Amino acid sequence: MELGQTLAEYVKRVTLDKVPQRDIDVAKLAILDQVGVALAGIGEDPGVKVQAMVDRCTANEATVLGTPRKTSTWLAALVNGTLGHTLDFDDCSSFGHPSVVLVPAMLATGETQDRSGRDLLEAYIAGYEIGEALSRIVPRRPDQFHGLHSTAMFGTLTSATVSGRLLGLDESQQRHAWGIAASQSGGITGNFGTHTKPLHGGIASQAGVIAAELALSGFESNPDALDAPLGYIYSVVAAGRMEGVDAGKATAGLGQWHIADTWRLKKYPCGYIAQGAIDAALRFREQSGLRLEDITSVEIRVPHLQPYFRVRPVGEFSGKFGYEYPVACAILDGEVIKKTFSDAAFNRAELKRHLGKFKTLEDPHSKSKGPFGVLVIEAKGKTIEQPIEIPLGDAKRPVPPAQVVEKYVRNAAEVVGPEVAKQTAQMLLKIETLSSIRPVLDLLAKRA
Q1: What's the rounded mean pLDDT across residues 337-349?
Q2: How large is the average pLDDT for residues 56-62?
Q3: 374: left (phi > 0), else alpha (psi -120 to 50), else beta?
Q4: Which residues, listed in sequence order, are joined to residue 377 by a DSSP beta bridge?
Q5: Is 141 helix (H, G, I), strand (E, B) or coil?
Q6: What pLDDT shows up at residue 196?
Q7: What is the pTM for the complete model shown?
Q8: 94-127 confidence digits (pLDDT tens)
Q9: Maximum distance among all alpha carbons in the chain?
Q10: Which CATH number fits domain 272-387: 3.40.1700.10, 3.40.50.2300, 3.40.50.11540, 3.30.1330.120?
Q11: What is the DSSP string of 358-407?
């Protein structure tokens, strides 16, 4: 029953002078990227509908990105988290989508507490490392975790870490916050391809903010809720399958720092698993000069076909969680961008008449062709094999920081204009020098 205490003591010890510069630099890029993809999600159905509900609240505490209005801390986290996951353009790591739950909690609590940019950055890093620690306890299965979405499952605790750190919770209070958050964790992968998947990010971030604020007020939970009998690990993460579960794996890596080695940026606004296949399709298009009408068939052969990535492409959201639709669009259009995943793009006759040529197969032997499988393309009487490589943006193939900034400016400019986008990019890249996050949020909320 020492897991919670060990993790809580660790959270208190995280300071920038202990973190390698490469991890600090990646953490700042992650924060920047998340704010940008949240802004790009404004106007899409999930955020519009959640915002409409939140507008019924009269609180005036924390910023909702892209609008001058404020709301309560937890509702700001709900909206900003939902916006940040709407396009599925946000980052990935070993414990799901980290920044979509960490950043909304960080902004909401950091703004209301008027904490410095350094404080926010340290809280983000602490939350990220707690997520990494928890994800080591139980190996991830092909269905993620018995059908639960890792982002929703780990996100409540990681966002509670961020808010708890910024609220100045002591070790006991932080353990209570995790216990409260643990009872709010979960989100089913059966909702992938619908409005509800983006909501997972919003709910997880909101839950962490609520948990931390309740703990600060003296609200109690089981302080050993993480590893107690019938607790978080047993009930949620392992679902009663305790063989091989080792809480010691969570604490063994504390202080080793994992951000630079696990953070994955997305180039395309869809499920991470398809990123390498899209790259392969674009390489095929460029190298062969062939077009969709020249192709007889495309088999997307992958070593493992996760159950949650078999969503039939029947519209804008569902198209993000399979291989066939984005690969077909890559060959047809030569790009996969935000508008690719719109009903208008999906319903194009020139796409729909060719989509049946694409098929995804689980083939363990495909790994011999490429790390993530291979595209087997029949075209004009020839068979062309295009390896699916590790995508650019993976921790093993990091993109230059300038490309992260470019992605942010492109996304943010849709809402705040190019000049404010560039200005806020520079501010966020130097977040540790800011005395307060409020001037940045004023710009992003179009109050300044």
Answers
A1: 92
A2: 92
A3: beta
A4: 298, 384
A5: strand
A6: 95
A7: 0.96
A8: 999 999 999 999 999 999 999 999 999 999 999 9
A9: 72
A10: 3.30.1330.120
A11: EEEEE-GGGGGT-TT-EEEEEETTEEEEEE-PPPBTBTTSPPPHHHHHHH
Return the CATH fold of 3-267+397-444. Answer: 2-methylcitrate dehydratase PrpD (1.10.4100)
> In angstroms, rounded to a whole number, what is the distance separating the alpha carbons of residues 103 and 33?
10
Q: How many CB atoms lie within 10 A of CB 344?
A: 8
**Residue 256 neighbours by CB under 8 Å, 6+ apart:** none
Q: What gap in Å lies between CA 262 and CA 414, rounded to an integer?
A: 29
Distance, in Å, from the CA atom of 14 to the CA atom of 255, rounded to the nearest integer, reads 8
Q: Which residues contact 67 (CB under 8 A, 6 or more apart)?
A: 51, 445, 446
Rounded to whole angstroms, the Cα distance separating 344 from 178 reads: 43
User: Which tokens belong to 338?
Assistant: 């935000």
CA 265 to CA 207: how far, in whole Å?
25
pLDDT digits (tens, 9 = 90+) for 256-284: 999 999 999 999 999 999 999 999 999 99
Q: Do 96 and 145 meet the contact criterion of CB atoms below 8 Å apart? A: no
Task: Give me the DSSP letters along 214-227.
Answer: HHHTT----TTTTT
pLDDT recorded at residue 316: 67
- Average pLDDT of the chain is 95
Rg value, the chain, Cα = 22
Structure tokens at 382: 């020839």
Q: Report the pLDDT averaged over residues 5-21.
A: 97
Tell me the CA distances in angstroms from 377 to 288, 295, 325, 333, 367, one per residue in order: 11, 7, 15, 17, 17
* Token pair 């999930």 in the structure block, residue: 46
- The pLDDT of residue 1 is 57
Q: How does 241-268 read in b/e, with b if 16+ C-beta sit within 10 Å?
A: eeeeeebebbbeebeebbbbebbbbbbb
β-bridge pairing 295-302 and 374-379:
antiparallel
Please report, for the chain, how many H helices and E strands are present, in that order: 19, 6
Predicted local distance difference test score (pLDDT) of residue 373: 97
SS3 assignment, position 299: strand
Contacts of 241 (CB under 8 A, 6+ apart): 146
Phi, psi angles (nearest 5°) of residue 312: -70, 135
Strands 382-387 and 374-379: antiparallel
Are 435 and 116 in contact by the 8 Å Cβ rule? The answer is: yes
What does the alpha-carbon distance between residue 100 and residue 152 come to, in Å, rounded to a whole number?
Answer: 10
- The domain segmentation of the chain, as residue ranges, is 3-267+397-444, 272-387
Backbone conformation region of residue 446, classed left if phi is above 0, alpha if psi is from -120 to 50, else beta = left
